[in-house]
Amino acid sequence: DAEITQSPRHKITETGRQVTLACHQTWNHNNMFWYRQDLGHGLRLIHYSYGVHDTNKGEVSDGYSVSRSNTEDLPLTLESAASSQTSVYFCASGPASSYNEQFFGPGTRLTVL
Amino acid sequence: GESVGLHLPTLSVQEGDNSIINCAYSNSASDYFIWYKQESGKGPQFIIDIRSNMDKRQGQRVTVLLNKTVKHLSLQIAATQPGDSAVYFCAETSDNTDKLIFGTGTRLQVFP
Fold first, then answer.
1. Are A102 and B46 within 8 A, CB to CB?
2. Beta carbons of A43 and B44 less than 8 Å apart
3. Helix or strand or coil: residue B53?
4. Which terminus of chain A has a smaller tally of CB atoms within 10 A, N or C?
5. Least CB-CB distance to B42: which of A92, A100, A106?
């Protein structure tokens, strides 16, 4: 069955380190999204992509970057992790024909000490 | 900027009762609304959506109502079950943006 996976599911890192969170989908969706979820803020969009080599900034993109070298993967990189980036991160994907339909991964809980 | 909000952060209901979760939105240009369910430790799951040219849409045990006059969206769950316990998010989007704007969520607790 097609699915969307994230790894790792839990990560603890130190301030200043580079961290990469993986997102992989097997639906062949063009659209992929990264969100962070914090209490009191709901889901906030970090970056998104509409296809290979396409990336766009979302609402809270500072300190994050993404790359899209193939359809299946959209890794999220924290160049220099900060304590303010402690959060739960969700990746989502959706078909190009239906921008509102997004399927979410199980999430990655990141703690920056 | 525009935002999507919820009136009640926590809703407690007895098993078998009907639940109503409310959401207010501020962007009158939004033309697509979605309800998501998020269980503990999992990602949000699509429940039901509605276009702005409709005022009601029904699914299995769920109904979404849209009142564009007062910019209000609600999710009704019939015969609420323990498995319905989760956080529910409304989200909006529009033709001039293909990004979803999420509300902060309402926690639904179902008691036996």
1. yes
2. yes
3. coil
4. N
5. A106
Q: Measure B102 CA to nearest chain A CA, in Å.
A: 6
How many C-beta atoms surround the C-beta of residue B60 within 10 A? 7
Residues of B in Cβ contact (< 8 Å) with A31: 98
CA distances from B9 to A44, B15, B21, B102 (A): 18, 19, 9, 14
Token pair 């993967």: residue: A73
Q: Are residues A100 and B41, on separate chains, in Cβ contact within 8 Å?
A: no
Q: What is the 3-state secondary structure (H, E, C) of chain A?
A: CCCEEEECCEEEECCCCCEEEEEEECCCCCEEEEEEEECCCEEEEEEEEEECCEEEECCCCCCEEECCCCCCECCEEECCCCHHHCEEEEEEEECCCCCCCCEECCCEEEEEC
Taking only the tens place, the pLDDT of each residue in A44-83 is 999 999 999 999 999 899 999 999 999 999 999 999 999 9
